[in-house]
Amino acid sequence: MPIDRMIKSLAAAALLASITALGGCSSTIADYALPADSPARTRDASGYLPVHDLPPDRSEQTMKPSDQAKLEAELKAARERQATAAAQNAAAASDVAAANAAPGR
Q1: Is the pTM of this model over 0.85?
Q2: To which H or E segment does residue 26 belong?
């Protein structure tokens, strides 16, 4: 039995070593596997995304104040409708729970 374990562990070690060795070559293979008519890759020296390159500020306002006030009013009305519906659902649920807990059942 110990010989079987040793063979299995050696096979696993060889597999791991071959995977590691082949994994290191994959980045260089990708550079040469491109078709001849594909555009050349740009080589960025830093390798990081340009996080400080921000788009220019907008020259026009995104939403007019009148449109913003109208939208806020619609959102407030929707919030009030949801609050009343939630209160009605909670009241109905408590009525059902009270009816189920009644001593005649």
Answers
A1: no
A2: helix 2-32
